[in-house]
Amino acid sequence: MAEEKNVNRAPDGRVLPEPPKPNFRVDLNGESAIKHVIGVVSGKGGVGKSLVTCLLAAKTRAKGFRVGIMDADITGPSIPMAFGLDADGVTAHNNLMVPATSATGIPVMSSNLLLADDSEPVIWRGPVVANVVKQFWSEVYWGELDYLFVDMPPGTGDVPLTVFQSLPVEGIVIVTSPQDLVSMIVSKAVNMAKQMDIPILGLIENMSYFVCPDCGKQHSVFGRSRIDEVAAEFGIPVLAKAPIDPSAAEAVDAGRIEYYEAPWIDGAVSKITGEKQ
Question: What pLDDT was estimated at residue 82?
Answer without folding.
Answer: 96
